[in-house]
Amino acid sequence: MKLPVNTFKKAIAERTPQVGLWISLCNNFSAEIVAPSGYDWAVLDMEHSPNEVGIVLGQLQAFNGATTTPIVRPMWNDSVVVKRLMDVGANTFLFPMIQSPEEAEAAVRATRYPPHGIRGVSGAQRGNKFGRVTDYFDRILDETCVIVQLETKAALAQAAEIAAVDGVDGIFFGPADIGADIGKLGTPMDPAIWDVIMPAAEAVKKAGKPVGTLVFDANRAAELIREGFTFVACGGDVALLAKGADNLLAAVRKGIT
Prior knowledge:
By secondary structure, the chain is of the alpha/beta class. The chain has a single domain, classed as TIM Barrel. It has helices at 7-13, 28-34, 53-62, 79-87, 101-110, 136-143, 153-157, 159-163, 175-181, 191-206, 218-226, 237-256, and strands spanning 18-23, 41-45, 69-73, 92-95, 145-150, 170-173, 211-214, 231-236. The chain has an eight-stranded parallel sheet. Strand 7, helix 11 (218-226) and strand 8 form a beta-alpha-beta unit. The protein is globular, with a radius of gyration of 18 Å.
């Protein structure tokens, strides 16, 4: 048995646009509902949802056979958490709140076996089909994808240097936290936020790395891809459920009155 190619990593390296979705409902059944939708990637969020490794395992299983690449966002740049996530089969990561090249290097090291990193070795785990993947140790480095998230003005100022870190496969801009950092809390679509993101995105692209982000607006997501962003999430499961429920009730009540 051979290790599969990481299609998301390959696609962003070739600058093939990838449309994503945020998964925050912490449940394998809800993940399975969206898995056949055909998104290119989906973030299984542990940072801003009550998600744990065991739940992520079920979510990863829900995406088995789907064309969507599951990306895990750990709650922090924590090598112990990353080790456990890789052992249950995660190989694509979004690391939150990366502030410097040194922090990006630490994220990369967490995903690598020695001598390239500090990941502990387990001979039989879900990531290698319990020892059945014969080329796992030879190829897992090549098939592991590390995306780092920049969320402050200070991080944006170092965007090119962070992007240049060996093993960083892409840069993700977090408009909500960047907005908070520049005094625009709660308004992630404010033009002032994008006025600081776009120059940093250009610097990253000039450094040879793809850029991505999350916006809860289909038109803006498409616009960003046209402007050179490679991977953009256009919504999330929580927002879809909340807005869908609200809109359905509002439509019924409107029909009654």
